[in-house]
Amino acid sequence: MSNSPAGDVDLPGSLPRLRQALADLTRLAGDADASSCQGLVVFSVVREPALLRLAPEAVARLSMHIADRLRAALRPADRLYVLGEWEWLLLLPNLPSSAPVHLAMLKFRRVFYQPPLAIGGVEVGLNAVCGSALSPEHGKDPLHLVQSARIAALAASQRGEWVALYDPEMEQESTAQQNLVTELQQDLADNALALYVQPQVEVASGRCVHGEALLRWQRRNGEWVQPPLVMATIERAGLRHAFNRWLFQAAALTLAQLRDAQVPVDMSINITAHDLLDPEMPDLVAQALTLWHLPPERLCVEITETVAVEESQEVTDVLHRLRGLGVRLAIDDFGTGYAGMAYLQRLPVHEVKIDRRFVAPITDSPRDREIIRSISSLARSLGLRIVAEGVETNEVMDLLGELGCTSAQGYLHGRAMPLAEFIAWWREREGRAG
Q: Does residue 338 share a domain with residue 243?
């Protein structure tokens, strides 16, 4: 099965992609009748040697033929999306039961081999495995639901079958993985996760007026879990919405504690592109700020640049609602995706963060220096703040000032610290008594 994220390649068939599917699932979940469910079916072409020998032009034509056949088999309410070069997703809205999903898998699977597909007059033998999942039975989170359908297709392939409905037993996790999920669920409910603060320092003045809140989790046995593993566990367990609710409240509490300690430092938090498909997100942010009586401009929400690759109306609406609250917006890891700088003119953002892979080598790389100079020049012309990540030496810090960066973040100034330690660090740096 293909794991290529939609948006990474130019896929044939002129079909909407994963991001639109997630937006449609979110909208349908809000409008759904309590007695109905949403069905998802993933089709993945079985890779055969003859298929892998096709020229790229033949692959494109064959994929378009498949997409056309799938479209022709749709009911008026059904929706079709492309997930990868040989992978499609079918959304069946407002079903009375799970029965239509199984029928759809059998019906649409025939599309791949009846009648035989041909390229240049030569028949191409194709087959597809199908996996399906149901909402809300197999998860209310849209991405979790799509992943469940893909897992079902993988399970069907591994069993030598052609179709399968998702079953939690398909995810045969080790005891250690199961324990990790269970403990994370409990600690999230008990507010036992933590946000550490990494300072951002103004290049010109050397003052710290901003920080980034970074997730940290220590298990009950004392073991620290790496943040990527924490986030992967959250996604796998379908806890993203619950985690975001905690994150916004924890960030607001951190800002309130900084205010009470008379430390005038604003705060950034990170969200994923998929979070911007949640129409409730601006409301959760607003609730957290209101609860702790915080000016919204104290909070900056960092989004990955990939969100700009395939903008949807849902994403645009959420971004403008966040900006309407007065919350600041930033593009994180700028320059790592293939989106051009023109996105800065369209997205309602206040700052860009230049990825560390461009920052670290600037002492030896004229090319990377010129990239940063170009980003800084455009960002300044748009009135945006420019933050360089991964700053570890004074030499790099000096060069960033020459290249026009506003602020710097990295081990040169400080690692992520518990809040009390950050406050002490800030007071010492600012020459204030504790």
A: yes
| Domain span holding position 41 | 18-170
Residues 267 and 226 in one domain: yes
134 in the same domain as 223: no
The C-alpha angle 306, 308, 313, rounded to 5 degrees, equals 125
Domain contains 6 = no
The C-alpha atoms of residue 431 and residue 403 are separated, in whole angstroms, by 29
Distance CA 5, CA 190 (A): 34
Q: For 272-330, write each residue's pLDDT tens digit.
A: 877 887 889 999 999 999 999 999 999 999 987 554 445 567 778 888 999 999 999 99
Shared domain check, 73 and 215? no
Reported confidence tier of residue 97, pLDDT bands at 50, 70, 90: confident
Average pLDDT over residues 261-270: 96
- Do 180 and 235 contact (CB within 8 A), yes or no? no
Residue 139 has pLDDT above 60, yes or no: yes
Overall domain count for the chain: 2
Whether residue 127 lies inside any domain: the answer is yes
Whether residue 1 is contained in a domain is answered as no
| pLDDT exceeds 70 at position 8 | no
The predicted structure's pLDDT at residue 306 = 55
Asked if 347 contacts 384 with a C-beta cutoff of 8 angstroms, the reply is: no
Q: Is the pLDDT score of 340 beyond 70?
A: no
pTM of the model: 0.72
User: Confidence class of residue 11 from pLDDT cuts 50, 70 and 90?
Assistant: very low
Co-location of 223 and 357 in the same domain: yes
Average pLDDT score over residue span 381-399:
93
